[in-house]
């Protein structure tokens, strides 16, 4: 255990550990406080005052000298990829952010492209232009020149820029329809193994050649099935094995899937899941036909390329004697029982853990959890970041319920439901979610003996529990009876397992605001901006009025729904069009109009945007817009042909409790 604020000092010379209760001597050097420069007050040192600290690690914590930042980009250049036009956005984004990539003077970068063959790029300093080397034997992939494919970013910067400027047009007339993704990944693994680092893969279709090739497993007629949903797990273990090999060499694989048809994300996602990578998905991606997705890719890349990154990391979570942690959720590989191997770690990843109470905790009034992350910063410094949490132990059930964190409960259940869907079946997972509500409310109601059994009673802390679980049952990951593409469902499941709680909650239960009267709302002041604070609305169509305009915040997308009879002043000032009829179908940005309502609306949206790492895209919706279905599917309190309304769901829960 790392020293933390919850240890106790018995006297000046001895301290007691809060996790194992052992009494230890205070080392001599710990008596000195470097901040106050005073001696003899160990309990006042910063690491005993703060529950989050970062230590600079000594060489005992290194198996090898800290690695440099190494970035390898693996790009699909088949006909499909070129047609979708993503290369222009990726290359442009890299050119703009080349100097902002986290790293130091040792940072290295490389590029691989692939279709039915694999192409490497020699960027050795001193060449007059980048040199393309093609390996066409994809069954026995090798590196054509091992030393000049990953180059120092600073020494070869001009060649790298030349390549990025040329790439988007190099394959314009390609006739290549095949995709040898597996061999390209094998090559990437060979190239990265000596150092470790990050592989960013851009893929637009089902891999069709060489190792790891996949076949279509989706039956479009089964998309709205209420029965069995198949193929939620991988079709091959190729991608998992590759990820574990990468993880062993401190390399993570991030996947950007930009597909127009089924691409078997259930199989492809394994390359990121087990290597501590992350997954981005842009269905129906097309640079010109789908401007919202193109803008999303651009914004995501800016964040992705410039955010902090840690390399060759391991994470361990420890807890007080009597408790044990048995299941971890997130993207990583569990190396030993409690050591998570994270080849890369980034600030946008979330983890969840399940723990159990092994022994009676009657003798103790507090329990502690400590997570320690050992990583190499992008500047090559070995660090240990430690968070310690201390919680009280209570003896009455009412106190247990009072301390429940409903959002944490829901997000952990979502993680468990994903596992259950894959290992057992989707319907099993759905039943388990409903049972979680029934069991917890039944147990609560049985403690309050004076209640009338005909009423459904929930403790204050869990009032929203049934609503959130209903929302989860209507989420793309778990819904049945509503047409859902298999890749969309699998991606929603991937997000459940890897997104931080705040982001996940918006996916499960979006926030809805009325925004056509923001001038009248109360405001707060944030950095010279006046930000209106409209009240939250229930997610029900009865809250929408034809005269209004509403903003729905789903985490990674904002929908603005405009009612048919919305005032022309709002449409003119905020949307920049004279009337409802003239508002276009594909509107993804609000103009800067010099009017108070425009300023307040933009201020409110940018305040919402600032609270999260990913930049959400905006979509304006009119009644005829195809995106309207998406918007209405989020109104989870309403009944659909395949699912209960909130009221019906509560009745159903009550019937099950009173059975």
Helix % is: 25-40%
Structural class: alpha+beta
Oligomer: single chain
Strand content: 15-25%
Can you tell me the residue ranges where pLDDT is under 50 for at least 5 consecutive residues?
none
Shape: globular
Contiguous helical run count: 19
Mean of residue pLDDT values: 94
What can you tell me about this protein's structure?
- 30% of the residues lie in helices and 22% in strands.
- It has 659 residues and is an alpha+beta fold.
- The strands form 7 sheets. Strands 7, 8, 9, 10, 11, 12, 13 and 14 form an 8-stranded mixed sheet that branches. It has a 6-stranded antiparallel sheet with strand order 6-21-20-15-18-17.
- It is globular.
- The mean pLDDT is 94.
- Keywords: Cytoplasm, Cytoplasmic vesicle, Endoplasmic reticulum, ER-Golgi transport, Membrane, Metal-binding, Protein transport, Transport, Zinc.
- Residues 310-394 form the Sec23/Sec24 beta-sandwich domain.
- Its main location: cytoplasm.
């Amino acid at each position: 255990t790392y020293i933390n604020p919850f240890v106790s000092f018995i006297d000046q010379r001895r301290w007691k550990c809060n996790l194992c209760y052992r009494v230890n001597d205070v080392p001599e050097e710990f008596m000195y406080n470097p901040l106050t420069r005073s001696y003899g007050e160990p309990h006042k040192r910063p690491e005993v005052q703060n529950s989050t600290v970062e230590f600079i690690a000594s060489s005992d914590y290194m198996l090898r000298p800290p690695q440099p930042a190494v970035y390898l980009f693996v790009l699909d250049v088949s006909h499909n990829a070129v047609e979708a036009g993503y290369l222009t956005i990726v290359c442009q984004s890299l050119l703009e952010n080349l100097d902002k990539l986290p790293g130091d003077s040792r940072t290295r970068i490389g590029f691989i492209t692939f279709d039915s063959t694999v192409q490497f790029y020699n960027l050795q300093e001193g060449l007059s232009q980048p040199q393309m080397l093609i390996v066409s034997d994809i069954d026995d992939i090798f590196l054509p020149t091992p030393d000049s494919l990953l180059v120092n970013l600073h020494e070869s910067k001009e060649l790298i820029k030349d390549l990025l400027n040329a790439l988007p047009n190099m394959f314009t007339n390609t006739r290549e329809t095949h995709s040898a993704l597996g061999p390209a990944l094998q090559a990437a693994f060979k190239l990265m193994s000596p150092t470790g680092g990050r592989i960013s893969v851009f893929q637009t279709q089902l891999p069709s050649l060489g190792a790891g090739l996949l076949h279509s497993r989706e039956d479009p007629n089964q998309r709205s099935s209420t029965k069995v949903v198949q193929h939620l797990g991988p079709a091959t273990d190729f991608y998992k094995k590759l990820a574990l090999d990468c993880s062993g060499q401190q390399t993570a694989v991030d996947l950007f899937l930009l597909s127009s048809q089924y691409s078997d994300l259930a199989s492809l996602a394994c390359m990121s899941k087990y290597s501590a990578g992350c997954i981005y998905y842009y269905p129906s991606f097309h640079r010109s036909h789908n401007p919202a997705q193109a803008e999303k890719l651009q914004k995501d890349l800016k964040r992705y390329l410039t955010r902090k990154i840690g390399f060759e990391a391991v994470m361990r979570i420890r807890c007080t004697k009597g408790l044990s942690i048995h299941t971890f959720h997130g993207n990583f590989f569990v190396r030993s029982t409690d050591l998570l191997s994270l080849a890369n770690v980034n600030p946008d990843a979330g983890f969840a853990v399940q723990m159990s109470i092994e022994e009676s905790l009657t003798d103790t009034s507090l329990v502690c959890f400590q997570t320690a992350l050992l990583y190499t910063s992008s500047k090559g410094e070995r660090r240990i970041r430690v968070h310690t949490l201390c919680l009280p132990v209570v003896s009455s059930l009412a106190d247990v319920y009072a301390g429940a964190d409903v959002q944490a409960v829901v997000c952990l259940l979502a993680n468990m439901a994903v596992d259950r869907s894959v290992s057992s079946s989707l319907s099993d997972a759905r039943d388990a979610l409903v049972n979680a509500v029934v069991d917890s409310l039944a147990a609560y109601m049985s403690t309050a003996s004076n209640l009338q059994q005909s009423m459904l009673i929930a403790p204050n802390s869990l009032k929203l529990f049934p609503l959130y679980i209903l929302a989860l049952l209507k989420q793309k990951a778990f819904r049945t009876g509503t047409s859902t593409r298999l890749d969309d469902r699998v991606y929603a499941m991937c997000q459940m397992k890897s997104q931080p709680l705040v982001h996940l909650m918006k996916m499960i239960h979006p926030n809805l605001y009325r925004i056509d009267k923001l001038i009248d709302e109360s405001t707060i002041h944030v950095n010279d901006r006046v930000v209106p604070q409209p009240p939250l609305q229930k997610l029900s169509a009865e809250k929408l009025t034809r005269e209004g305009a509403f903003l729905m915040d789903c985490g990674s997308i904002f929908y603005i729904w405009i009612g048919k009879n919305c005032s022309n002043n709002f449409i003119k000032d905020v949307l920049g069009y004279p009337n409802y009829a003239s508002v276009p179908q594909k509107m993804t940005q609000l103009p800067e109009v010099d009017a108070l309502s425009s300023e307040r609306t933009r201020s409110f949206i940018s305040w919402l945007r600032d609270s999260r790492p990913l930049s959400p895209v905006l979509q304006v919706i009119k009644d005829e817009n195809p995106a309207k279905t998406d918007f209405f599917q989020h109104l989870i309190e309403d009944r659909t042909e395949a699912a209960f309304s909130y009221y019906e769901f509560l009745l159903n829960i009550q019937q099950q409790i009173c059975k």
